[in-house]
Amino acid sequence: LGVLNPSSDYLYTWVNDDNSTSTGSIWEVSPDETTEYTVTATLAHCSAFSSVIVEVDQLLIIPNAFTPNGDGINDTWNIEGLETYPDAHVQIFNRWGARVYNNYGLYRVWDGISKGGLELSQATYYYIIELNDDNKTVYRGDISILK
Questions:
Q1: Which residues contact 115 (CB under 8 A, 6 or more apart)?
Q2: Model pLDDT for residues 87-131, shown as the tens digit of each residue
């Protein structure tokens, strides 16, 4: 973040959401989450301020397979980062297009059980993940159940 056309006569003070501060016309940052930064320029007894919000999108890690065999290792399809999208819609379909899993809102990891409570067979299934974020982000792909 930086000040356009900074003047060396001003004192620049940056503050972020957790009250960390920096002085100077530039503050290099790499936030892990969306953060608001405010810069105050002071000269003698006058000051002005402005703020900017740096939005950070959480990366999703979407596995392409899992093994729901009860051994405690990789038994569920866990999409890392999806918990930061509370309005997400996750749907999974079989090869004939029938929806076998439907989750809207807070994501619950999928254990390979169909919406009717049946254990699904080893196969490749297809997912659609709608984040319902400001960008209307949609992910599509396949997920394999291995046994």
A1: 99, 100, 101, 102
A2: 999 999 999 999 999 999 988 899 999 988 899 999 999 999 999
The one-character DSSP state at 115 is T
* Distance from chain centroid for Cα 83: 8
CA distance to 8, 82, 130, 135, per residue, from 79 (Å): 48, 6, 13, 19
Closest by Cα among 82, 88, 3 to 48: 3
Q: Which residues pair with 46 in a beta bridge?
A: 43
Q: Where are the beta strands (DSSP E) in the chain?
A: 11-16, 21-23, 35-43, 46-54, 65-66, 89-93, 99-104, 123-130, 138-145
Cβ-proximal residues to 9 (8 Å cutoff; 6+ apart), any chain: 43
Alpha-carbon distance of 114 to 117, in angstroms, equals: 5
pTM over 0.90: no
- Give pLDDT tens digits for 25-74: 888 888 878 889 899 999 888 998 888 888 777 789 999 999 999 999 99
Q: CA 95, CA 86: separation in Å to the nearest integer?
A: 28
